[in-house]
Amino acid sequence: MLEHLGFDPTAESVYRLLLTRRDLSTEDxxxxxxxxxxxxxxxxxxxxxxxxxxxxxxxPGELRPVHPDLAAELLLERQRAVLLRQQxxxxxxxxxxxxxxxxxxxxxxxxxxxxVETLQGIDAIQSRLEHLARNVERECxxxxxxxxxxxxxxxxxxxxxxxxxSRGVAVLTVYLDSVRNDPATWExxxxxxxxGGEVRTVPVLPLRMVMFDRDTVMVPLDPDNTRRGAVLLHGxxxxxxxxxxxxxxxxxxxxxxxxxxxxxxxxxxxxxxxLLCLLTTGATDEVAARKLGLSVRTVRRMMADLTDRLGARxxxxxxxxxxxxxxxxxxx
Length: 332
Prior knowledge:
Layout: H1 9-20, H2 26-33, H3 37-49, E1 53-55, E2 63-65, H4 68-111, E3 116-120, H5 122-135, E4 139-144, H6 151-166, E5 170-176, H7 183-194, E6 198-202, E7 209-212, E8 216-220, E9 229-234, H8 237-252, E10 254-255, H9 270-280, H10 285-292, H11 296-309, H12 315-324
Parallel strand pairs: 4-5, 5-6
Antiparallel strand pairs: 1-2, 3-9, 4-7, 6-10, 7-8, 8-9
Helix pairs in contact: 1-3, 2-3, 5-6, 6-7, 9-10, 10-11
């Protein structure tokens, strides 16, 4: 029952027994619970390590169980420390990944000077996209984070998508689930589907990218400000990796025409699960909103709803209870 808090079932049974019977020996505990004396001894030691069993003042040499209210507080605090360590490890991993990506980009520029093209500004990006769309032969694959797409972006995309589809090019696009609440992006997605394209959605996307014929990929110079410019890579190992990433995202995405499934046993949507995972790993409301393509107000409303549904009194307790429910099946 309390395994998510580091409390194994045997130790929990011993603790519950000692709350009602404090005069039991290790052998008595083993006999009453139907376990070996060795397992009973290990469970008692585990309870001591968790500070749920403490030395008795009245009877020196004996152990007493702490009150259940204090036990819950101690277990939650211990779990909080674990989560904080995970957050720190995640942040360190992010930093290491960023450094690796930067080093790879530098090496790519040094080793393949004719394979990388830097585009400065939105006009340069649009001009290059128009050229690539005219020359693509087989497929155009896109990951589009940021939630609702701007009217300007949709207007610029329509003639390019229409031209590619008219030539039999496969156009596959992945948006965030949140676009289902934006009339303009929703309408554009259905227009694209009616024209022969395919559109799917996911709760969160790793980055923005557009790939042509799995030979050329465009990614932003700054993921937080795509207007600054983009990098265009041709025929490199990085392009192959981006193709594999797209395939992975696509296989897990939900077609735009379908309702987003809600797991029958979890009472939580994929978008809500991603929100919990983001906040568990230390993301702020603002960062979570940007990654999910939602407003900060919507993120806070969703979090308040989750807190209420779990009967929690704080965000930390919400995270703990979500873990107990098995809702955090993510790479947190």
